[in-house]
Amino acid sequence: MEYRLLGGSGLKVPVLSFGTATFGGGTEFFKAWGASDVQEATRLVDICLEAGVNLFDTADVYSRGLAEEILGKAIAGRRNEVLLSTKGTFRMGPGDNQVGSSRYHLIRACEASLRRLGTDHIDIYQLHGFDAMTPVEETLRALEDLVRSGKVLYIGCSNFSGWHLMKSLAVSEKYGLPRYVAHQAYYSLVGREYEWELMPLAIDQKVGTFVWSPLAGGQLSGKVRRGQPLPPGTRISAGVGAPEVPAESLYTVVDALEAIARETGKTVPQIALNWLLQRPTVSSIIIGARNEAQLRQNLEATGWNLTPEQVAKLDAASARTPVYPYWHQRNTIRERNPPPTTP
After folding, report:
1. For this structure, is 62 an active site residue?
2. Domain boundaries in the chain?
3. One of 62, 154, 180, 194 is an active-site residue; which one?
4. I need a labelling partner for 108 at 20 to 30 A (CA). Which of 11, 328, 330, 332 fits?
């Protein structure tokens, strides 16, 4: 398993990490993702560790804490072998203060996650979203307290826009506060908006990216094909996961993936994951699995690379005209860096 530095930090993470949204199935929403119990979760953790995947990503909101509890039991007795990443911010109870990134909520959310995970520290603690109601300074000072106490080692964020992340980094620099070393973001062959602003920002500011839903909520799992009905009993048919992609755009990408699958002998999801591994700023791709077979297939997305020609085919099939101002900025870039002329 390849390991990469996480952003500008000294922490190395595996290029594949395991997401635990499939643990528990404690709510109707998460039942569509999966419902692994402790026994099955422990087996999946075993397989990950055997393959060198030692980073496990979860969140307090996954099945309302049940996923964290199951993960904690699955890693019992081997905490020093794993890296734990969890998230707070989303609502975890009734009342105006049981949601958000205020000091009040974050401190309590983190301590609750520690209890459910059965650990004394979280390796990477991330905000699950941006809270516009709380001053950035308050949020970062609360996270600083968690870091100084030893309850959190590194901080990150998720689902931020470019200005959310840049403002937070500027406040950290101004006041000498802990800095986000990671941003967990949606990115896939059919969801390349991440490239418009968040990727350039991550390059400039040395922020590592954890990719969530790399298979677009199952749309790139190989189960969706042109002219065929959606498979029943899946997240795709249930409409749970990443945003729906216009049919023709999706099928154009799937056609390209299937053509490369025939060339390489790899599966469609393995190719989609490998394409992401070759993108700038990507530190780790969060893979999920309902069962052992899915997990083993996804793990085989590493140890090889698509050729430049194959990457170019996927780039072309998935290319989309960006929204303003990004299409306009591309014109400026072209003027500053014109293509070389042929003599």
Report:
1. yes
2. 3-243+273-304
3. 62
4. 11
